[in-house]
Structures
1.
Amino acid sequence: MHMTIEQVQGRVPIAILAIHGDMDASNYEQVIDKARELYAAGTRHLLLDLGNMPFMGSSGVVAIHSVALLLRGEQPPDPQDGWQAYHSIDHARGGGVQAQVKLLDPQPRVARTLQLTSMSDLFEIHSDRQAAIASF
C-alpha cells in the first residue's frame, strides 16, 4: 500500500488522501499516522479516496474510524487495545455522519466491508470526485 496526498480548494481547503493497494493489519497504522500528520499541518477536511484500494481488512475499519476521530480533534483508541478500538466505533454511531471525513469511490469488496460493519452509516460515500469536494 502507498498513499498520495493532494490539496484542493472547495468551499473550504480539502486534503485528498488516496490509498493505493490493500489496507490490512500490516499497514493500517500508516493511514492513522498520515492523518495525524495532516491534522498537525492544519488539515480539517479530508476526502479518503478508496478507488485504488481493492481490499480493506477489519484493521482498515479501525483506521478509517481513527482518521475521523483525529480530524474532529479527538484521540483515537490505541490500536494495540484490540477490541476496545472496535467498541469505540459503536460509541461513534450516536454522533451521526462525519462532517470532516468523507469517502470516495470504495471498490466493491471495500464497500461491502463498510456496509457489513455499518461504517457506511457514519460516512458520506461519494462516487463522483467533484460532488465529493463540493459536499464539504
2.
Amino acid sequence: MTDLAMKSVIMSRESRLSLRPRRTPYYISPLVGRAFGYKRNAKLAGKWVARIRTLSGHYREKSVGIADDYAAVDNIGIVAFDEAYARAEEWFNGQDTLATRIEARPFGRVDGLSVCPIGPEYTVSHALAEFTEWRLKFRSPSNHLAVVSLANAYIVPTIGSVVCADLTPGHIRSVALKVEATAKRRGSGRYARKMIDPTSLTPDERRKRRITANGTLSILRSALSMAFREGKIGNDNAWKFARGFPHVDVARVEYLSWTNAKRLVDAARPDLRRLILAGLYTGCRLSELFCITPGDILEQRMALYIHPQKTYRGRTIALPEEGYDFFQMLARGRDSKTPLLQRYDGGKWKTNYVAMHFKRLCKNLGFANTVVFHSLRHTYASLLLQSGTPPIVVSRQLGHINLTTVIKTYAHVTDDFFDVEFRARFKPGFIRPPDLFSNVMVGDDV
C-alpha cells in the first residue's frame, strides 16, 4: 500500500480499526529517515508512533499520543491524526534527536550537488558543478547520478569550499583517506555516514573502500582538469601526480561453465530461453538485446548490428552459425523494426522483470546468488577465451575500446590462455629429459 493510501486509512477512525492488530506500526514515510505511524492494538486503543533513523543506521521510536479509537479527543493524552503528526514533526526537529538523527531528505535519487557555489572565488564546488552539468549532456542518467552521489558524500563536505588556487596535494589525499575511513554507504543520500577505523576492516572490505576512494579521486581529477583546460585554474600541480590506492582492482566476474550454461538454457521457460540464448550468442548487455530487430541482421557477413545504448557505441558483431540461424528463425514473418525478443504475451521485456525471473531460475538450478543476467556477458567472453579466441577479437565483440579491459577483467581466463600459448610456441630444447637427472654438467670435462 502506498503512503498516500495508508495515510487515508489511518486518518479515518473506522478505516484504521479495520486494520489487523500487529506489533509493527502501520507507517507512512514523508521523508527519508522519518516515519509516522499507527500501532493497532487488539483490545485497547491504538497509539500514534514517530520514528527516526539514526546515524548508526538504527531506528529510534517514540509514542506521541493515544489514538481516538474509542474515546473523544482531549489533546492531552488522546489525540487525533493531525495533532499526533504535529507532535511527531516537533520531535523530529527537536534537540532531543539532534545529535543522533540523520538529515531528512525527500525520497528518490539526488540528481544535483548538495551545494550551490556562489562568490567570486573559484572553489572546488564551482569546478564540480560545471563538470557534472557538462557531463550530464552526454552520459547516461545512471552514470550522472553515481558521480553526483560520490561528490556529495565525500568531495563537497571535505574540500568543496577550498579555493582551487589554494589546493595542495594534501587536499587531494584527504578525500581518498576520508572515503577509506567512512562506512559503506546505502543509497545516494546527502547525509553523512559513520566514520570507522580502516584497520578494523577485513582485507576485502578495505580493498572495496579503496576502490570507491579511487573512483572518487577520478571524479575530482576530471572536474579540476576540465577547469584547468578552460583557464579557470592557474596550474594543475595539486592533482597532476595524485595517485589512488594501488593493487585494489581485483576482477571477480561471475561466469558459467559450458555445462551450466546449457543447464540454464534447458531449464528456462521459452521466452526467457530465447533471451538467454541471445545473450550467450552475442555477449550483449540486456538493454542492447531489447533493441535488436530483423533489420539488424546482416546476411552477407552473418553478423548483427548492435545499436548504441546510452554511452555505449554502436558496433557490428560476428555470429556463430548456430547463433545466426537462431536470429534468422526469430526474424521470420516479422516487420524489420519489430523487436525480436519479446515476452510470451507479446509485451516488451523490462529489466526488473527479467532480473526477477532469471534470479528465480538460477536459484532453482542451485547457482550462486551472485549470478545475474549480466553474468551471461562474462560467460560469453570467458568461453570465447577458453576456446582460444584472441583477446583482440573478444574486445571487438564486446565493444571495448582496447584490450586492457578484456585482459584486466578476464585475467582468470586469459592467464590460462597465455600459459597454453606460451608453451605451444616456446620449446627451447636446450637439454634432453635424461640430462635433468645426470650428475655430470653439460660441457664439463670427464
3.
Amino acid sequence: WHWLAPGFPTLENAPSSTTIPVSSLLRQLDADLPAATALTVVVPEQLAGLDGERLHVARAVDWRIVPGRMTEGDAVAADATTRIAVRYTPDSQPAVAYLRAAVAAWNIREPGRYQLDAQPVAKPIGDTQHWLVWLASTLSAQASDWIARGGVALVANHPAPDAAALWRDVGGDVLARKQTVGRGRLLALPGALDPAALPMLLDADFPDRLRVALQGPPAAPTRANADTVRPLQDTFHGTSRAHSADPARPLDPWLALLIAWLFLLERVVATRSRAKAAS
C-alpha cells in the first residue's frame, strides 16, 4: 500500500493557510490498514504537520524521501514582529519607562522584533496586538474579553490568590501569579509595577524573565527533516494486532482428550470421597 504525503505534488505552490496533520493521518492509516498490509510512504525532505511526538506504528514502513518541502500554514515566521500594548492610568504612567527599557533590551538581540504601543486605558486594544500590559487598578471588560479570546496579559494590581506562582523572591514569597482565562493567559501582579512592590524590576535579568513569561512554554515542533522522523515500528502492538487478526483455531485432538480425561478423573475422586464420608 503506497501513501503520498498530502499536498506533496504541489508542495511549493500549496496554499499557506493549510497545514496537513501528517502525523495524525499516518497514525490513522496504520490503525485502519489490515495488519498484513505493507505500507510505503513517500515524503519530501522537509516535513510539516508534525505534533512533537515521535511516530510509532504497528508495521514496518518503507519510508521514501524525495526532494521537496511541505509548507506550514498558520505558522508565525521566526522574524515576525511582536506587538505589545501597554494601557496605563496617569498615576501608573511612570511604570511605562521600565517596560520601554525591557523592550529596548529585547530589540538589542533581535532588532525591530518588538514594538511597544503605550496608550491611556481608554485606547482600545487592537486584535493585531500580541501581548498586553495593563497598569490600571481594574481590568476593563474589553481587556478581559481580549484575554479570553486568546490574548496574553501582564496585569498589575490583580492579586489572584488562587492562581499558580509565576515569580518568587529569595525568601519564597510569591511576586506574580499565572492563570488561564478562556483561551488566553493572565500574569497577575498583586501590586503595582514599580520597584517598591516588585524589587526584581531593577534586576538586570528582569527583561528576560518578562519576555519568557509572556512567551509561555515553547510550542511542540511541527517541522523537521523527514530522515529524523522515520516511523518506529512498535513490535508489541504489531505482534498483538497480528495475533488478533488470526482466525480462531480448534483445540488439537490430544489436548481435548486430555481435558476430558482430567475432568473424568476429578469426578471419580469426588465420588469416592463422598462414599467414604457416608460410610
4.
Amino acid sequence: PAGTWNRAGVILFGGFGKLIERVSAAGGAPSPVLPKEDNDQNPNQLAPQFLPDGKHFLYGAFGGKTGIFVGSLDGKQSHLLMQQTDSPAFYAPSTSGGPGFLLFLRQDTLMAQPFDPDKAAFQGDAVPVASPLANGPTFQPSANGALLLRRSQASPPQLIWLDRDGKRLGTVGEPGNLRYPRLSPDQKTVAVARGESGKRDIWLYDQERGAETRFTFDGDDAYPVWSPDGQRIAYGSFRTSENLVVIRPANGMGKETVLFRSQPPVFPVDWSRDGRWLTLLQPFSGPAISLLPASGDGKPTPVIPHAFDERDGCLSPDGRWMLYTSGPSGRREVFVQSLPESAGGPAGGGKWQISTAGGQQPAWRPDGKEIFYLAGDGTMMAVPVESGPATLKAGAPKALFPTHLNSNSILVRNYDVSIDGKRFLLAEPVEGAAPEPLTVILNWQSLLKSK
C-alpha cells in the first residue's frame, strides 16, 4: 500500500479495500486515522500524502463519495476537494514563491491546479502539463521542481492465443491498450475494451473474417460480458459522474437498455448460463458481488459482502457457485461460495478455498471441470473440479505457463479461456517490444507560464 511519512515520525498508509492507518516510525500497532463518518462513507482510502504542515494530508477515496479529500491527524472530518479524478492527487510546492500546485490526471492528461496548502483550497483553474500519460498514478513531483512521468506504453500489447504450455498459437486484431477480452459463446468473436485518448470503448473482433468493429460510442465503456445465446453484450459505462450497467444487441442494431445506475463504480463481470442473472462487482461500496436480474425487472441480490477487498465474481456453468477472490489473511486467495437458494444455490450452502499460495483473476472452464487463476507472479494455474447438486471438490493447483498479466492491481479477469480449456486468450507485450519509457521534466512549472 502507498504511504507517506512526516517529520514527526508519523507514517500513514492505505490502499484499495483499506482504511488509512497511522503508525509510529518507531513501531507499534497501526490504527485508523480518520473519523468513523469518513470510514463508513468511504471504505477505500488510498495514496495519502502529507501537506507541508505535517498535520493535514491528501488522499483518494472510493465509496459514498468518490474523489480527492483533505484529512487531518487531529481526527476532524475530511473535506472533499474534487470529485471523480482519474488518479490520486499529489502536492508540489511552488519553485517561485506563492501557492503550490495539485497534480492529478484527467483522462490521460496531467493537470496542475494552483493550491494553497495552508487553506487547503484551490487558488485558480487547472491547466494541462503533459499528455498522454498511461493509467495512473503514473507521475510524481519532487520538492525542487522536477517531475517524473510514465507516458503511454511504448509498444501496446497484442491479443494472443496460447496453449496450455504457453506456446503462441496466433494473434487477434491489432496491438492497442486492450483489456478484458471475452469470447462469444460460439468462440468466433472477441469483445475487448480498447483505450484511446483517455477514453475506453468496446470493440468486436471477428476471428473468421479478420475484421474489427467499434461497438460503443457513448461513454467510457469497458467490462464486456456476452449473453449465453451470444445475442447481447452487457458492459459498464461511465457517463457524466454516473456509472451504468448497459445491455445492447451484439449486432449493434437497436437501442441500449440501462439495467443499473450508481454513483460509485459498478460493472458486470459474468452472465449466468440460463440467462437469468448478471453478476455485478461493486468494488468500493454496497455488497461486493451481487446478482442482478438480466431482465431489468428487480433489484440486485447480494451474494458476497465487503470484508477483505473482494473482487472478480464468476458464476459456475451449472449456476450453483460463485468464484471470487478475497484477502482475509492479507494475501489474496481464490474462493468458491454457494449461491443463495433463491438464486439456484444448494440447500445449506458451503465455501471452499481453491488457491493454496495466493491467487487472483479466477475463471471457470466453460464445462465446469477446471478453475483457472493467476498466481502472485502471474503464472496461469489450473485446478481440477468435481461438483454435484450440493457438493464441490477441488484438486491440487497445477502451474501451466507464465504470463505478463498484472495480477495485483486489476479488479476483473484480464483473459479468457476456450470451451475445451486448451487455449487462452490474453493481452501480452509484442515480442521484441521496448520497455515503457520514463520521462523527467526539470523546472516543469515554467511550462505553465505560457499556458
